[in-house]
Amino acid sequence: MEWLAPLAETPLARALITSSTLYLLVNAAHILGIGVVFGAILALDLRLLGFAPAVPLAALAPYLSRIAAGGVVLAILTGLCLFSVRPTEYARNFAFLAKLGLVALALVNVATVHFGSGWRAVLTGEGPSTAVRVGATLSIFFWAGAVVAGRWIGFL
User: Which residues, in sequence order, are CB contacts of 55 under 8 Å at separation 6+?
Assistant: First the structure.
């Protein structure tokens, strides 16, 4: 993991290390990104699972998907910044690795659901298929697990 050590010497990492204010702002932006992702995804997944049936899914799904995508981009960009501060320590941290694995599983799940025929049925108002409902259930577990693993990082 020593090949990651030079990341901590980049200008961005040095700025984050030396400025508690900058680190605070990037950390807050990371948490905001996570909140946006999880909030939008949870609302969408619950709707796909049949909660709040009066809410029109065909209009809600693309909107919440785009919001979640923006949150993912923010969380990943800020996460990379935070990683650069202590890259070798994070790379050895089981909780960090678990978080990365869960995020990867969640993103594969998103791609599987969104590129499947079941998603097109959701967008046309036909309703979610069994495959989409399974994807929604997995999504809740993967994203919630990633949040828990992310919080666990500081305790290891």
Answer: 47
Q: How far is CA 4 from each of CA 11, 21, 85, 153, rounded to the nearest angstrom?
A: 15, 25, 11, 18
Which pLDDT tens digit goes with each residue over 96-143?
999 999 999 999 999 999 999 999 999 999 999 999 999 999 999 999
The C-alpha atoms of residue 79 and residue 46 are separated, in whole angstroms, by: 27
The model's pTM: 0.93
Q: What is the pLDDT of residues 55-91, one digit of tens each?
A: 999 999 999 999 999 999 999 999 999 999 999 999 9
Q: Where do we find the tokens 């996570």?
A: 34
> Is residue 20 predicted with pLDDT exceeding 90?
no
Three-state DSSP class for 92? coil
* Dihedral, 50, 112, 43, 105 alpha carbons, nearest 10: 120
DSSP code per residue over 23-68: HHHHHHHHHHHHHHHHHHHHHHHHHHTTSSTTS-HHHHHHHHHHHH
Neighbours of 110 (CB within 10 A): 21
